[in-house]
């Protein structure tokens, strides 16, 4: 498994598995505690796995958690997604940095998103399954959402948005969220 640091987001990593392919398809390891440990992360902190299924054009995000935040491992297990991370950690050398990636079921690459970063994605294929492994149990009272189309962020989403949750559609601006969080 190859590990690559994400320059635009301090502490973020891409974990690229080595697929073994043959006439049946492929097999690959998508999580390896020793590899995660090799970059200074504790693999034992991940306590919850979740899966979302989206159709082409669906946008989910930008989401983060207040309080201690939430670190996560994100992988597109089927289809393709345009994945975005925004660094909202005031003490980070990449504060307000943004990075985007195409994650796909073909590569099974996993993105590590550090706590304190906002995350969102858009489905690029008819079906896109996205897996999350998070480092603490989900608490809806800590959910924070930032407008996906905030001009300050200027995220270039690749497709017109076909659907999103009401919460995402009505999300406040980055400036409002930062003010509310005291950042």
TrEMBL record:
The keyword Cell wall biogenesis/degradation does not apply. SUPFAM superfamilies: RmlC-like cupins. Keywords: Isomerase. It holds the Pfam family dTDP_sugar_isom. The keyword Isomerase applies. Belongs to the dTDP-4-dehydrorhamnose 3,5-epimerase family. This is dTDP-4-dehydrorhamnose 3,5-epimerase. It comes from Streptomyces pimonensis.
């Amino acid at each position: 498994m190859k590990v690559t640091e994400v320059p635009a987001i301090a502490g973020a990593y891409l974990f690229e598995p080595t697929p073994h392919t043959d006439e049946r398809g492929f097999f690959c390891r998508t999580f390896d505690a020793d590899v995660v440990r090799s970059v200074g992360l504790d693999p034992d902190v991940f306590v919850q796995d979740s899966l979302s299924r989206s159709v082409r054009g669906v946008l989910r995000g930008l989401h983060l958690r207040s309080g201690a935040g939430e670190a996560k491992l994100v992988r597109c297990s089927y289809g393709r997604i345009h994945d975005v991370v925004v660094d909202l950690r005031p003490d980070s050398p990449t504060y307000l940095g943004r990075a985007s990636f195409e994650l796909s079921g073909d590569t099974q690459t996993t993105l590590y998103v550090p706590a304190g970063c906002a995350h969102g994605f858009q489905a690029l294929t008819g079906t896109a399954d996205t897996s999350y492994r998070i480092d603490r149990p989900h608490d809806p009272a800590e959910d924070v959402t930032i407008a996906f189309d905030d001009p300050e962020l200027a995220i270039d989403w690749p497709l017109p948005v076909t659907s999103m949750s009401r919460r995402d559609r009505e999300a406040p601006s980055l400036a409002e969220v930062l003010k509310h969080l005291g950042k």
